Structures are given as structure tokens and as C-alpha cells.
Amino acid sequence: MIFQNKLITWYLIHKRDLPWRHTNDAYVIWLSEIILQQTRVEQGLPYFNKFLENFPTVTDFAAASEAKVLKLWQGLGYYSRGRNMHNTAQIVVNNYNGIFPTLHDDLIKLKGIGEYTAAAISSFSSGEARAVVDGNVFRVLARYYGIDTPINSPEGKKQFFKLANELLYTEDPALYNQAIMEFGAIQCKPKSPDCSICPLNIECYALKNNAVGQLPVKLAKAEKKHRYFNYLVSTVDDKILVRERQAGDIWQHLYDFPCIETTGFSTEEDETLEFTVKSNFGGETEITFISYKKHVLTHQIIHVRFFALKNYIFNFNKQKELNWVSFNTLDELPQPNVIRNFIEENF
DNA sequence: AATCCGGGGGG
DNA sequence: CCCCCAGGATT
Where is the HhH-GPD domain (predicted)? Predict the structure, then answer.
């Protein structure tokens, strides 16, 4: 138990004071865990406070509209987390009488809760003996034990999951889980950790073998795709033409503008753009360039051009997803950051 | 097994 | 510029 004891001892001295560590309410822990998926603590903290303020209980959460949830989520990214939370809150109210489950086997069935989150909520709220395996745990174990199996391969996931559960300190799973994650976040951090002050530096495989910078191993990611969005901006009086994005692409159920996607911004492709604009909005339609923005996502780089749309004919029957909204209404609708920023810069 | 899903901070 | 972040769902 040397490994576990040292981690816990380190944790009790160095842990940050974070609000979700003061509760064992599964609902509150769920809020924090979903928000913190692929998200740094400092980035997620204001969102955690905002959600808890707006939805003190899971019943409050379930009663809200999906748009309200996504509006609160705006700017945090990975919006399926918000949609899944909305669904899960309603399942908890309808099937669990509004009492948030605390057992792994119940939690894992809920949308947006996978192995990591089920282990986190169950151990933190009910003390269930489930080891968390997140990015921090991968890194600490890979370095300490010198495991070079890629952490994003199926074998790697199985191997690390098995080891993590063997190491779990079953006398206090919650404490141990918090300890190893905090240790990974603060001491055994991704880049240039200060191993001279690490309590595990004597036994650490990576430090002994000068491999701290090489572990953990990760399989190469797919190359980012380039996409070219031509947004058509149209305002009449205090209203603006918006589109609700649908399933099958990024930013599902968020709002942007009518958009014509092309394969590039070359002269030839711009002729295609103009042709498409006129066939959709009438032959007299004119577009004038406003601004360009590059927007980078995990798997795509989106080149965004904004155009002012003029002299067009608008057919609601052909363009069902489009809608006129006032700027006041728009402020209540969830939007991707690139749209939000454009609106704030131009209106 | 591979790909998709955001946005921001830090080296 | 590149990497990573209290991952999960879909194909």
C-alpha cells in the first residue's frame, strides 16, 4: 500500500478546495463530473456554479427546456453533454423519483455517463469501490509503472482499467480516487513536472529511465479536416435571420445563420457560391463580404466567412429550419462561439 | 477500432 | 504550433 499511502498523504496536504468536494449529493457530483469531462477545472468552475444556481435540484433541471440548458452551456463546447444531461435529468425524475442514483450499475445506463463518470459518482456519493480512470490516472500509472501501451487503444484501456482497480484503496475509494486524479493534475502533470519534489520519485519507472516525457503513449490522432462556411447575415429592423442546426453535424440544436458550405474559397468556388445563393434566394440576390474567422475544433478547422445578404426572396416553405428572431430573442438562444463573437462584434 | 464531438490554456 | 483537459456516443 506504499503507492496508495503516498498518494493520499500528498493529497491531504496539496488538494485544492473545490466546491464539489464538500458534498456527497450525487446530483451535485454529477453536475461537476459532466462539466469537467475533457474540461479543465478553471474553465468548468463558473459553469458549475451557474448550473447549480439555476437548477438547485435535479427536478429543477428536468423542468427546464433543452434550449435553456444549452444556453447555460454556451461556450463550454461538446454540447452533447448538455443535451444528454437534460435527458438524464428527466429519466431520474421519472424513473428514480427524482433521487439521483448512486450505484455504478444504475449510473452507467444514463446518457452521458460512461465508465469514468459512473465510477466517479458512485465512489464519491456512496463510497462504492470503483476506480476512476481519467487522463490523470492514465498518466500517473503509465509513468510510475512504465506502461507503454497506448492509452487510447482498446488494449490500453483494459490494461489500465484492470491495474487501477487492483490498486484501488478499498477502505476509502472516494479519497483514493480524488487523490490520484489531483496528483496527476498538479504534481504528475503532462508537461515538465517537477519530479524533484515528487513523493513517488524513488520508485517511479519513468523517472528512473528518463522517460517522463515519453509516457503515457498515445496513438496519433486523425488529421483535421478543413471546411469552408459561408454565412449569410440578414437583418430587417430589429430582427435577424437564424437557423437551428440539426442532427448529423457539429453544434446540434445550436443557432447560427443560413450557411452555404463550399469546398474552398477560390474564385471558382466563389462562383459556385454565388450561383447557390441566387438559386436559393432569387436571381437579384447580392452578397457582400463582411469578415473572415478561422475556428478550430477537435477534428476540423472551419474557415468562416460572413456575408451581408441583400435583395433576396425568402421562401419559408423551402427553408424550414430558418427563422426571424429579434436580437433580444437571439440573446436567449444557444449559439456556437464563432457566431456569438460575430454578433457581439457587429451589433 | 476509428471517428466524431468545442473551446481554451500553456509550453 | 502542438498538446492536453475529472470522456462518451456512434459507426
Answer: 35-186
Question: What pLDDT is recorded for position A285?
Answer: 94
CATH number for the domain harbouring residue A167: 1.10.340.30
Amino acid A152 CA to nucleotide C8 C1' distance, rounded Å: 13
Q: And the C-alpha cell for A116?
A: 469514468
A317: its cell numbers: 416553405
Q: From the CA of A31 to the C1' of C9: give the distance in Å.
A: 19
For residue A258, the enclosing domain spans 225-346
Q: Which residues have CB atoms below 7 Å from chain B, the nucleic strand?
A: A 38-40, 42-43, 75-80, 152-155, 191-192, 219, 222, 225, 249-252, 295-300, 336-338
Question: Can you tell me the mean pLDDT for A136-152?
Answer: 96
As a rounded value in angstroms, the CA-to-C1' distance for A339 and B6 is 13
- Domain for residue A157, yes or no? yes
Q: Clarify whether residues A187 and A38 are in a common domain.
A: yes
Decide: A202 and A142 in contact? Cβ < 8 Å: no
A89 CB-contact burial (10 Å; exposed 0-12 / middle 13-18 / buried 19+): buried
Q: What is the mean pLDDT of chain A?
A: 95
> Measured at the alpha carbon of residue A182, what is the angle toward residues A180 and A187, in degrees to the nearest 5?
95
- Would you call A232 helix, strand, or coil by DSSP? strand
Domain identity same for A199 and A289: no
Q: How many domains does chain A have?
A: 2
Task: Give the pLDDT confidence of A44-55 residue by residue, as tens digits.
Answer: 999 999 999 999
Q: Which amino acid appears at position A339 of this protein?
A: I
Q: What is the mean pLDDT of residues A3-32?
A: 97
pLDDT tens-digit map of A79-131: 999 999 999 999 999 999 999 999 999 999 999 999 999 999 999 999 999 99
Asked if A199 and A232 touch (Cβ cutoff 8 Å), the reply is no
pLDDT at A138: 97
3-state secondary structure of A319: coil
